[in-house]
Amino acid sequence: TLRTLLTAWLLPRSKWGFQGEILPNSGTWGALCAPGLCLGSVLGGLALSLRILAAPTTLLQTTRNAHLMGFAWALLSVGFFCIRRPLPPEAPDMMPTGVELGAVGLFFAEELREWASGAPHWSRQVCIAAAFEGVGLLFRGVGALPSVAPEHLVGALLLVCSLSLFSHVRRMAADSTRESFQEDLSMSLSFATIYSALALFVGSLCSPDVGATVFALWNSSYYSLAWSAPAAWAAWSLSKHLVGYIWMYSPSFVVRTLANILGASAFLAGGFSHWYWCSFVAWWVNNTAVAIRHRRRHDDAEAAGRLWEVPEWELGLRCLWDTVRAMVLSLPWNALCIPTEILVNFILPRELKVMRLSMPVPELGEKVDYGVAVYTAPAQSQHYRGAPQFFECCTLHVDDTASEDGAVALQRAWNTTGEAWRAYRELDAKGLVANIVCFFPNLGGSEMAKEVQIACWQSSADAAALHARRRRRSEARRDAGGGPQGAGGG
After folding, report:
1. Pairing relationship of beta strands 432-440 and 372-376 according to DSSP bridges
2. Total-model pTM
3. Contact yes or no for 238/1 (Cβ under 8 A)
4. I need a labelling partner for 13 at 20 to 30 A (CA). Which of 90, 243, 452, 487 fits?
5. Residue 22 clears pLDDT 70, i.e. is over it
């Protein structure tokens, strides 16, 4: 995927994906389809030649799946060459291309198949995605595409038909072994060459433009051919890997993967301008609906004790999508909270501060209370490799934080904790490994607060020595008229 995107093969305005000398931007339908048929004829020619030399009788021992996939390869080659053509000069820059229409068609075909087959947990949320995509395409001039660049529509249609045919063959071969399917897939490349060459021959007899296009390709300069070679190689390599993944994963996974690749390419070409943002919203909503659908299926499998039947790659894909959603949504969250945090902390007294969570936390249910944890450790503890030998644990309960007495008790507890942290820093807390304080502002929806503090020491003597120094400092301040101090105990 990255290799294909980096070579810009899918971007119709990239010079890596188009050469005017090889692919003229005008002509009949035969001339428009001829380059794709040439690609199908050449790239499968080596496999066909080796098969004829090694065992020519194997061409007669084929299955229907091999013929269907060979026909799908030919459609795929023609469709890809059509959608990667540049738009005419008179077309507006925001007009959708066959790349984007191919992604939309693949998403639509897969959702239509699941709806027609009565897939469990299918929801109408995808209709929201279809509405956003339709509005975006409408305002970007998709209605004028049939008259301006009809080859993009035909290319997108051929692309959808070819991938749908591959998926249909895979579902029909559900009872076959992996070796037999791989053999049919290898044989299909040879049939793709035969079908593509036969189509070129018939097209040359019916239309002189087909023969003229083939001769133009043959007479092209080596520079033009070499410049377009990486694009053609990336196209074929990506398609071959995706078709191979049909058996390893699932047909739906392959169709949606290619649709996401095409959609990402269209997004790189247009960004968020000129109603492209509608397509981004549609992509997001559709993938979210698919993720919710799979999550509910996983929950059903877990409830029935059959979670082990869910493929590992499917669980991994769900985790990947959850990670992507969390990363994308954290961007606006941090953009809003960072300046707010700076402003509020500037206004608050220096003894107080607010904090933000830069990343989401797990949702553990309504019966779980969330709080704030503070971790402190002296610098010398970083070099300590042993296990702590002494622990101090202190808990505090405030029954009613809404009352005046509760607020005073809560403030006194905070002052005590703050004084303890200053003591750790100022009195050389030798032997302290770490100190953790957890504060829960409310428990179970009530007005009760709780504070739990744990201090880890290398020995009990180190803890006693620090507490003695804290008491002496408190007494010295009291004798000097400094007033009462916080509690000296841990």
Report:
1. antiparallel
2. 0.66
3. yes
4. 243
5. no
